[in-house]
Amino acid sequence: MSEMVFSCWGGKVTDSRTGPANPDDIALPKEMPNGQKLKGVMGWDGLALWGDVDPVDLARAYAEGLSRNSCGQCVPCRIGSKVILETMNRVCEGLGIEADAANFKTLALRLRNQAMCDLGQSSGKAFLDFLENFGGEFASAIAAGKKIPRGDFVTTTTAPCKSACPAHLEIPTYVELIKKGDFAGSLKLIRRDNCLPGTVGRVCVRPCEFNCRRQNVDGPVQIKFLKRFVADYEIERKRPTGLPEGKPAASAKKVAVVGAGPAGLSCACFLAQLGYAPVVFEALPEPGGMAAVGIPDYRLPRALLQHEVSIIEKMGAQIRYSTDVGRDVKLAALTESGEYAAVFLAIGARLGTSMGVPGEGEDITGFFKGADYLRDVALGREVYTGDTAIIVGGGNVAIDCARTALRKGFKSVKIVYRRSEAEMPADKVEILDAKNENIEMMVLTNPTRIVSEGGKVVGVEVVDMELGEPDASGRRSPVVKKGSEHIVSADTCIMAIGQAIDLELLEGMSEIETTKWKTIKIQGLNRLAAIRGKVGIFSGGDCETGPLTLIAGLAAGKEAALQIDRFVSEGSTEPLDEWALNKYIEKMKPYSAKEDVGQVKSTEPAKIHHMPVETRVRTMEEVESGFTHGEAIDEAKRCLRCYRLLVAAKA
Predict the structure, then answer these.
(1) Residues 370 and 488 reside in one and the same domain
(2) For the chain, percent of residues with pLDDT exceeding 70
(3) Which helix (H) or strand (E) holds 470?
(4) Alpha-carbon gap, residue 418 to 420, rounded angstroms
(5) Are residues 344 and 379 in the same domain?
(6) Are residues 133 and 58 in the same domain?
(7) Kind and range of the H or E element at 94?
(8) Does residue 119 lie within any of the structural domains?
(9) Distance from C-alpha of 490 to C-alpha of 450, rounded to nearest angstrom
(10) Which of 133, 278, 445, 576 fits a 20 to 30 Å CA distance from 254?
(11) Last residue of some domain: 443, 475, 499?
């Protein structure tokens, strides 16, 4: 077996038994992101071997994983998985009988064709792939009657939606609990990985839904709104959270968390659950970071966000507001005081950026950077409002600026974007909402100059663009149409083209490195930025990755909390196996838009309720409203429960 190179993953067969084959011919990753070498895998799309793993032992490990993870709701999986495991254990102990091969195939076929969910169905396929390609080895093992040594395997379950979620929530299970009417149980499971469920249920960019197998049939399950439903249900019914409350023990070790945005709040929440005393330093007078002052109230009511943060505070997290680390408190002082066992940097990307075209200037009335404009509005500061606003950019911040400007009183709002609408990175739902509010999309247009008179914006000079060849990201590069310059009249220009990280707090902290993108550099999955004396300095969220998503920040915060615990309690900087497995599976891409799911189109995704356009453009109140009980349960019933099993053999 040491020379075996084989793969049937994805239907592409590589087999050293029939001709020359090289491990590099197999596209699957050969090692985990933490450096753990692998020598084979078995999963939802076949088997692959490139080391001395015994395929019969691999199938036994897979049977063990299926039996352990089966939900038991259907006979083929509940009973079949146990019988398959008993068979494989017997064969690997050298006690197999001739009938085992035929019985194994019968059970695998039943799993494939009769199991109620994809865990059983895909496992049936995996077993059939094993029999098709290693049936001879299986028969030989039965005939030989010799004990097969156990290999060292790692086993996990995933789902297309779960693997796409940065926090890897157990989406099929919490959706299924909603289907059963167990709303509290669903919320409890969500909170195991997500400390701001109501917030995420409103503003998540829902990568899970873009990887939902149901969309191959009749539309994705509305996962985001189901999360919102259970979070709102608890508040509306005044139900207890069931989460621990109280101050940390006097002996609890303190951890300084810099920033009360999503990453910092998540880190503090999970540190509190682990028995630490997190102290959060926040420059703003309220929690949430850019979630609070960068996402308008019509999308995310601040009262809801503050309610969810209050739960974290009741769990033992202390938040010191209006305290800017770097100005009010030096970062070096936090590491040198002896008060904190570790520090987590989660300062986000709070600075607005601009294009650098002629005519820009913050001293010019009517000129704003996107992040700054949203922050000023959120904090109740007076902002200039005229007749026509031009928003430059194509992301969610640009859409938020445009819709906010409309609500602040502008009569006309235009979004200027250099590519076509199809290339806009903003959430398509947000783009549609903006268009429904009569915000004009001036696509294939790019600013070249801000025109001002008497210190006030009076227009923006733009140039027409056309799409050329694809760039490194795969999007077609915009090319200037020569001689197309013209001026668009406006009294306000808001540059919403990106955000930057304020690294002023790192002054004097030579141990902490930064990247060429002006982000904080970490070692990798362990989230360690530096060790200063005995204090570990960790980082996560936008200040480490650059501007990403709220759910990515929450995931980074939880990862950091667990790594900090490992560092403080064990002195270890080794990354946790759980995160390495998650990253490995992400590379395998469990979802395929081309897959025939084998379902008949029967339902459409539940409709989202909106405040009438003519009403909502005059208020900052929340635009969308959640599901009713019946709508939530019906929507949850559409889930196909697409769990899949993966077993990897360690080298």
Answers:
(1) yes
(2) 100
(3) strand 456-470
(4) 7
(5) no
(6) yes
(7) none
(8) yes
(9) 10
(10) 576
(11) 499
Domain check: are 466 and 569 in the same one? no
Q: Are residues 470 and 505 in the same domain?
A: no
**Is 96 among the domain residues?**
yes
The rounded distance, in Å, linking the Cα atoms of 372 and 52 is 58
**Statement: residue 152 has pLDDT above 90:** yes
pLDDT at 472: 79
Q: Average of pLDDT values for 432-437?
A: 96
Cβ atoms of 172 and 246 within 8 Å: the answer is no
Distances in Å between the Cα of 166 and the Cα atoms of 273, 439, 556 are 21, 32, 8
Give the N- to C-terminal CA distance of the chain in Å, as an integer. Answer: 13
pLDDT band for 1, please (50, 70, 90 cuts): very low
Going by pLDDT thresholds of 50, 70 and 90, the confidence category of residue 376 is very high
Say whether 424 sits in a helix, a strand or coil. coil
Q: Which of 1-15, 347-361, 401-415, 511-525 has the lowest mean pLDDT?
A: 1-15
Q: What is the pLDDT of residue 650?
A: 95
Split at pLDDT 50, 70, 90, the class of 477 is confident
Placement of tokens 């560092």 in the chain: 567
For residue 593, give the amino acid letter.
Answer: A
State how far the Cα of 634 lies from the Cα of 464, in Å rounded to an integer.
47
Q: Which residues of 357-366 are buried (b: 16+ CB within 10 A; e: fewer)?
A: bebbeeebeb
Instruction: For residue 451, give every residue at least 6 positions away whose Cβ sits within 8 Å of its Cβ, in sequence order, or none.
Output: 359, 457, 458, 459, 460, 461, 487
Range of the domain at 264: 254-350+501-574
Whole-angstrom Cα distance, residue 187 to residue 198? 10
Domain co-membership, 413 together with 463 = yes
CB-based contacts of 121, cutoff 8 Å, min separation 6: 111, 112, 113, 115
**CATH (domain of 469):** 3.50.50.60
> Would you report the helix, strand and coil content of the chain in percent, each value rounded to 5?
40, 20, 40
C-alpha distances out from residue 314 to 129, 247, 269, 274, 543, Å = 52, 8, 10, 14, 27
- Domain final position from 552, 574, 596: 574
What total of structural domains would you count in the chain?
3
**Do residues 50 and 143 both lie within one domain?**
yes
Q: Is the dihedral of CA 512, 516, 519, 524 positive or negative?
A: negative
Once rounded to an integer, what is the mean pLDDT over residues 328-342? 96
